[in-house]
Each structure stands twice: as structure tokens, then as C-alpha cells.
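Before relying on records like the one below, remember that each one covers exactly one chain. Contacts with other chains, cofactors or solvent are not represented anywhere in the record.
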Amino acid sequence: MRTFHIKHPDESLRQPLEIKIDNLNKPKGSMGLLEDIALQIGLAQHTLSPCLSYPCHLLLGGDHGIEREGVSASPREITWQQMINFTCGGGGVNLFCRQHHFHLIIADMGVDHDLSAIPEIINDKIDFGTKDFLDGPAMTEEQFDEAIEKGAQLVDSCYAKGCNVISIGEMGIGNTSPSSIWMSLFGHLPLSECIGAGSGLNSEKLKHKKEVLQQAVIRFLNTHHETGLEKVRSILRCFGGYEMIGAIGAMLRAAELKMIIIIDGFIMTACILGASKLEPDILPYALFGHCGDEKGHRKMLHLLHARPILSLGLRLGEGTGAICAFPIIDSAVRMINEMNSFNEGHITKYF
């Protein structure tokens, strides 16, 4: 795995940023979360005048071997069908990208279908889906490293175009299963508290999902005894999907470049949780777009001490919640840059 050099934001600018925000012509603290977002972005970019330029959205696709065990309400072919649908502009992610002027990049990291003839989809395929992690690791170490690298390269291409704010979404039937396991193992929580209905499992199917995932975790714990970063890598590699590991690579590279990362729902929150176990200094570059409707998402946000911007009951995935949050983030940046100070507005400062 490549080495990422992520620097924690320089705290020397915190007080000047706080002073600037407090001296805008408003009651102190009256802009609430917008003030926190402006402060965070100013620190991440190390400037009193932060900016957001050329927002990009990476949509990564991949299939999961564990789907063969009946842990999802949606069939596997939905992944490739939706990937093609995205190229036609007909998905939820498409309309929000259009609405909020995000450049959409669609990449096949591991879809179980040949999409190579579709020019609108970047062919980053590592394999036709991961292995079934009930029987063994989802991917090899080489495949893990390749997924990290390809995710990082996608960010490089955005950065070269002037992008400094990025969001990431996924398309992969079955990917709530590895997300639940990552949440359980990294958060030291009972697996039962981390598993939800995904795309709509009934109570009987949900019970089956819990049994399958518990069996996979027991097998893993009985056969893997690494510690430290090697244990983190093993947890990620043995359960993750190519699109999820690609997202982690993208997040790590974005933070290394001091870009702002807008985190989507349950799957992407699991990815930033995993990324933070590799590089804890990634978190100051992450803004959490929303709290979704998947069981466990709020708990995982709590693990990360994260305050979500929106709470709309979303659970579509694709990165839709992250993009929906962008106007709020944009408002925070406009506030710190465009609002007069008390002096500029010739207004008496009363506190």
C-alpha cells in the first residue's frame, strides 16, 4: 500500500479565524453550524478566506461475493444496470450533480459485468466482484493495494482540474454487509447493533443476514491475529468491496492534498472510519453530509465524533446525501468571505 503523508491542519490560524467569524455583523454564534464549517474549512485550507472550487463527485461501482449468501434484498445485476443508468443521467446522483454543479466521474472498480465498451465509465476494474468473505478474504493484498491506488489516482485527476472539494458515492449491491462488520470491529460494538435492512430486507431475511455476517466475523477472528495497522488492513481487505477500498484511497489522497471531503451515508461513513484507522489526521478534512436512515449510521457518526449537516432520512447511497449538503457548506464559505464585519458595516459591536 502506498504511503500517504497527511498533515493535521496548522492550529495557529484557529484564533484569527474565530476572531474573523465572531466579528461578522451578527450576534456571536448566531450562524450555528455554518460557523463551525467555515472554521474547519479555513483551518484545512490554512486561510482566512477559504474557497470551494470545481466540486467533483466520484461514483465508484463494485460487486460483493457475500451477496451470493442472500444478505441483500436487491439482486446483483442492479449494480451494473444502475451504472449504465448513471451514464444516461437518470439516477438520483445525476440530478443532484446537475443541480449543484458537481462534475460527475463514474468508475467501475469491480462490477460483475463487462462495462468496458461504455466510454462514460472509467475502466478501473480490478476483478468481477470480490470473493465471498464467508469463505475467506474478499480480496488479495495485491488487489487491496490496487484499489487504494486507483482511488487515489481518480482524486489526482480531479485535483489537476482545480478541484479542492470532493464527494464520493458508491454503487454495490450488498455493501452494507462489510460496512456493518467494519463498524463492529473498529468500533468495538456488537455486530447486531450495526446491521440494518440495507435496501429493504424483511425480518426473516434480516435474521439470516445477521447469522451469515456473524459466522464470517467468527471465522476471521479465529484465523487472523495481526495487531496495529496490519490488523486494520486485514479487516478492510477481508470484508471490503473494491469500490469501498477505492473510496478509502480517494479519501486518503484528498486529505493529503488538503482537499475538503464531503462524506455521504452509511457506506461512506464506514469508509472514512476505516481510513481514519489508517491515518487519524484525515478527519479534520472531512465534513459529514447527513445522517442516513440505515440502522447504525447515527451510532457510527457518534464513534467519529461527527456532526452531520442534514438529517433527511436518506438511504439511497450513490453519494446523494453528500451532494445535497453542499449548498450548506457553500453558504458557510460565503458567510466568512462576503458578510461585513461590524467595522465594515459601521455597526456598533455590542459584545
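Residues 225 and 231 are 7 Å apart (CA to CA).
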